[in-house]
Write a structure and sequence with these properties.
A seven-stranded mixed β-sheet has the order 3-2-1-4-7-6-5, sandwiched between helices. It is built from seven helices and seven strands; from the N terminus they run H-E-E-E-H-E-E-H-H-E-E-H-H-H. A hairpin with a 6-residue loop joins strand 1 and strand 2. Helix 1 packs parallel to helix 5 and helix 2 crosses helix 4. 40% of the residues lie in helices and 13% in strands. The longest helix has 28 residues. The protein is globular and about 60 Å long. It binds zinc ion.
Length: 248
C-alpha cells in the first residue's frame, strides 16, 4: 500500500475510535453507568502501547477536544496542561497485561456496589448479562495497600487490580466500583450495562427466592452470540439514539 494511502487509513482509524470514545462517554452517562465520575478508554488502533482517555471531566460532557493520549505507564504523550484522571492507571495496567483488551470502563454503578462487599458471587442470571462471564472476582485494595484514599492512582495499584482481573471480563473493587474490559468499545459498553442490570436483577430476585443462574454453557453460547457484529451494532444504535445522537 502506498505510504500516503496507508497514512490516510491510519488517520481514519484513529478518528473512528475517537468518535466512538466520545459516544461511549455520553452513552454510559445516559445509561447511569458512570455519573460525574468513572471513565472509558480505548487502545490506540495503530500504537498498541498507547491509549486514549478523556481529560478529568464528567463523561456526560466529554467532547473530541477533551481526549488525551497516554503511554501504558500513564504518561501523557502530548503536553496538554489540563488534568488527567487520577485513576488512569487502571487502564494502562490492564492494556499492558491483556493484549486481547482494546477498551476499558471503570465505574461506580450503584447496583453493583453491594456485590463488592458481601459474600455473594455476581454471576449472570439473564442472557443479556452473559457477556460479564462466568466469574467476577473482587479486588480489595486493603490486601496489599492497607488504608488508602480508595483510588487506584498508581501503576502499582493498577497492576494489582489487573492481576485480580486475570483473563476475566469484569472485576469488582471492594467499596468502590468495577472494571469492565472487552475487545472493542461497543462490547465494553454492553458488558458495563449488562453488569449493572444483572446486579439489580439478582438483588430483586433474591428478595423473592433462590436465583437460578445461567450455566457455564449458556454463558459461553449467549455471550458469543451477543458480542457478534450484528447484535453489537443494533445495541449501539439504540444507545446512541437514547443519548440523543440518533442519525449520526
Ligand atoms: Zn473509581
Amino acid at each position: 500500500m502506498p505510504e500516503d494511502i496507508g497514512a490516510a487509513h491510519g488517520a481514519e482509524a484513529i478518528e473512528t475510535v475517537l468518535t466512538q470514545l466520545v459516544m461511549a462517554n455520553r452513552i454510559l452517562a445516559r445509561e447511569d453507568i458512570i455519573d460525574g465520575f468513572g471513565h472509558v478508554s480505548v487502545r490506540h488502533p495503530l500504537h498498541r502501547d498507547r491509549y486514549f482517555l478523556s481529560r478529568s471531566r464528567s463523561p456526560e460532557i466529554v467532547t473530541r477536544d477533551d481526549i488525551m493520549e497516554f503511554t501504558l505507564d500513564g504518561e501523557q504523550v502530548s503536553n496538554d496542561p489540563r488534568n488527567p484522571y487520577k485513576e488512569r492507571h487502571i487502564h494502562g495496567a490492564i492494556y499492558k497485561e491483556r493484549p486481547d483488551v482494546n477498551a476499558v470502563t471503570h465505574h461506580h454503578a450503584r447496583a453493583v456496589l453491594p456485590f463488592t462487599m458481601v459474600d455473594i458471587p455476581l454471576r449472570p442470571m439473564f442472557h443479556m448479562a452473559s457477556v460479564i462471564g462466568t466469574e467476577v472476582p473482587v479486588w480489595d485494595s486493603q490486601d496489599e495497600f492497607g488504608d488508602t484514599n480508595m483510588l487506584v492512582d498508581t501503576m502499582e495499584m493498577g497492576h494489582a487490580l489487573a492481576r485480580t482481573l486475570g483473563k476475566r471480563t469484569v472485576a469488582l473493587l471492594r467499596g468502590h466500583g468495577a472494571v469492565c474490559v472487552a475487545s472493542n468499545l461497543k462490547a465494553v459498553v454492553m458488558v458495563s450495562i449488562g453488569l449493572r442490570d444483572n446486579a439489580a436483577l439478582v438483588q430483586s430476585t433474591l428478595a423473592l427466592g433462590k436465583v437460578k443462574y445461567l450455566t457455564d454453557g449458556e454463558i459461553e453460547k449467549s455471550s458469543k452470540m451477543l458480542l457478534g457484529a450484528m447484535p453489537l451494532a443494533r445495541a449501539w444504535d439504540y444507545w446512541v439514539a437514547r443519548a440523543g445522537y440518533s442519525g449520526l
